[in-house]
Specification:
about 45% helix, globular, about 450 residues, 8-stranded mixed beta sheet, 4-stranded antiparallel beta sheet, Alpha-Beta Plaits, Rossmann fold, alpha/beta
Length: about 450
């Protein structure tokens, strides 16, 4: 964390005001550090809590949720002025707390009083409607900025690459992007019913999903997974529902060999093998990545899940790390701008810029082209990103198909809308998930 400090001149006259000032100082340091260093907020705050163990669970919650709230509503509250000015930063904290419906109303009101905008306090409804339109009206009233719009909650460069014609669809997307999705997970090595029972024994509320038989919704509560038996014993794996769509689209067949060409820490590799084992299929997964630490993490997760049919083959050069023409299925979950995950990482929409999107397609196409060489005749090539931008998705696939006529798009059924399509986009508002894109191609010759 950097050494920037908020110059606070306010004097506390109550215990609540003292806590409000202390929180504000800490949150400012974290917030300014993220903006200055461009480091992810979850990493910055994790490092802070690791170094400052004095905070109890309530303090940690106030600090963490206030920090992420600032980023979630930054498109509006940055219009209040410079966050480095004391009165304005207190106003930003109060605005964010109100928009987020945070339960620490006493702290919010102290922030509001310190911001010299206490005259608007009687007009603030508690709790505020979850509608982003209602929240916009409240912010306009609070801030006296009538020009604020819902589009401002996402950066201009996002809208340049994610063109949505319908105002209703745009509103639904912003509504989703302004809320946190639940923690999604999968059951593996056991039925969902058995895993739900095991979670219940640890007093963890969870439920299934209508879409996939192994999906589990863990809600929004913070959970220490290392104290959850279902997780430590390998029966539960955290994976967003949109991400789970990818493995379901892959649908690995009997005794098939799959290559996860950009595996990262292996969430989809584990899912592919889990899907095979659900039907008694015995196949194998090879996982590759350029990052050794990610592959090591995959091996740890596979060991926890008692999976023995996953092996690794790191990318060490431009040459294929696996045998060409050898796989029934190849998954390319390509590096991308990750704007589909902005619900969980609202800071990234403000610390990234348009280059996060525009610099990726050339790399994505190159990886897809190289990885396609591993698909045997009749096999499947699946391309996926956690991006919603066309140039990372449809444009990359079309460029690949133009130069690889021996691959053809497969028709897919969208698991949430049931529409038939060849290029499937999971929008966050469709099933309370992240955003994701996926296509499946088959090698014809």
């Amino acid at each position: 964390m950097n050494d920037s400090q908020l110059p606070i001149s306010k004097v506390a006259s109550t215990g609540t005001e003292k806590r409000a000032i202390s929180y504000a100082s800490t949150i400012f340091n974290l917030f300014d550090s993220v903006l200055t260093t461009k480091q992810p907020a979850d990493r910055v705050i994790a490092n802070y809590f690791r170094e400052h163990k004095k905070h109890g669970s309530k303090d940690r919650r106030v600090i963490r949720e206030s920090l992420f709230g600032l980023f979630r509503w930054w498109g509006w509250i940055q219009q209040l002025g410079s966050h480095k000015q004391e009165d304005i930063f207190f106003s930003m904290l109060a605005s964010s707390a109100q928009l987020e419906n945070h339960p620490w109303v006493d702290i919010r009101d102290a922030w509001l009083a310190f911001s010299q905008q206490s005259d608007v306090l009687p007009t603030l409804p508690t709790p505020l409607s979850e509608s982003v339109i209602d929240k916009l009206a409240t912010f306009q009233q609070f801030s006296k900025i009538p020009t604020a719009t819902i589009e401002q909650l996402l950066p201009d460069w996002f809208w340049q690459h994610c063109v949505i014609e319908s105002d209703i669809e745009k509103q639904l997307l912003v509504q989703a992007m302004s809320t946190r999705p639940p923690i999604w997970a999968r059951a593996q090595q056991a039925s969902r019913k058995a895993v739900l029972q095991k979670l219940s024994q640890d007093n963890i509320e969870a439920c299934g999903s209508e879409f996939f038989d192994d999906t589990i919704n863990l809600g929004h509560n913070s959970i220490n997974l290392n104290q959850v038996a279902a997780y430590t014993e390998g029966y539960l794996e955290i994976q967003d529902l949109a991400s789970q769509v990818i493995g379901q689209i892959c649908a690995p067949q009997a005794n098939s060999q799959w290559w996860d060409a950009c595996s990262g820490a292996g969430g989809k590799s584990l899912q592919l093998l889990s899907l095979m084992q659900q039907t008694g299929i015995k196949g194998n997964i090879i996982a590759s990545d350029i990052r050794t630490h990610a592959l090591n993490e995959l091996l740890k997760r596979a060991k926890r899940a008692h999976f023995k049919r996953i092996s690794i083959a790191a990318w060490k050069s431009e040459l294929l790390p696996v045998t060409a023409n050898a796989f029934e299925g190849v998954l390319v979950d390509a590096p991308c701008s990750c704007n589909g995950t902005w619900r969980r990482n609202p800071d990234m929409r403000w610390i990234d810029d348009v280059s996060a999107i525009e610099e990726k397609p050339e790399l994505q196409l190159d990886i897809l082209q190289r990885s396609a060489a591993a698909v045997k005749v009749g096999g499947e090539l699946v391309y996926a990103t956690c991006s919603l931008s066309e140039i990372e998705n449809q444009s990359v696939v079309n460029a690949f198909l133009k130069n690889n006529a021996h691959f053809e798009l497969e028709h897919l059924t969208h698991p949430f809308t049931r529409e038939s399509t060849t290029m499937l986009t999971v929008w966050p508002q469709q099933a309370n998930t992240d955003g994701m894109f996926v296509v499946k191609m088959r090698r014809q010759r």
